[in-house]
């Protein structure tokens, strides 16, 4: 028995094969592209995810999911607001804000939020999941300093 070489298909390739299968049938598409028909069936069931994936992505739905999705959405919105105002945020401030949001605003939703560790690994995962990027220190250093002191004043007086 000969060994079958495993192949990996990008989302755009899968969608192209699915389109062919809609016009010619799944078994005909399987023969045409030299793949098993069950693969086409699985792709058909996940077609919505394939359409929403980036074209060359091969790992749809892979990766670690957020443990606190609502709190992370709040952090993302806050960061976008600051970004729109031209205010840069340090990683330390982002981690501190996430911890405060979990303890305060989302305490009922996430009772274990007080045990949250805002590690570097969590931060880099959050940045990757939400399409942010880290920037080097530059012209916004003065704005960062002003913002950080304002945050400390605000959080200090809020307690």
From TrEMBL:
The keyword DNA-binding applies. It holds the Pfam family HTH_Tnp_Tc5. Coiled coil: none annotated. One of its GO terms (molecular function) is sequence-specific DNA binding. InterPro entries: Homeodomain-like_sf (IPR009057), HTH_CenpB_DNA-bd_dom (IPR006600), Trp_repressor/repl_initiator (IPR010921). PROSITE patterns: HTH_CENPB. Keywords: DNA-binding. This is HTH CENPB-type domain-containing protein.
């Amino acid at each position: 028995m000969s060994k079958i070489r495993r192949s990996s298909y990008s989302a755009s390739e899968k969608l192209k094969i699915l389109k062919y299968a809609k016009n010619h049938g799944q078994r005909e598409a399987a023969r045409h592209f030299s793949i098993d028909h069950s693969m086409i069936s699985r792709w058909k069931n996940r077609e919505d995810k394939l359409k929403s994936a980036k074209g060359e992505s091969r790992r749809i739905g892979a990766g670690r999911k957020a443990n606190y999705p609502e709190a992370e959405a709040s952090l993302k919105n806050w960061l976008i607001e600051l970004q729109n105002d031209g205010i840069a945020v340090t990683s330390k401030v982002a981690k501190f804000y996430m911890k405060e949001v979990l303890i305060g605003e989302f305490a009922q939703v996430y009772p274990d939020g007080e045990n949250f560790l805002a590690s570097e690994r969590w931060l880099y995962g959050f940045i990757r999941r939400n399409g942010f990027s880290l920037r080097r220190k530059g012209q916004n250093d003065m704005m960062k300093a002003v913002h950080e002191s304002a945050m400390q004043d605000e959080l200090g007086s809020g307690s």
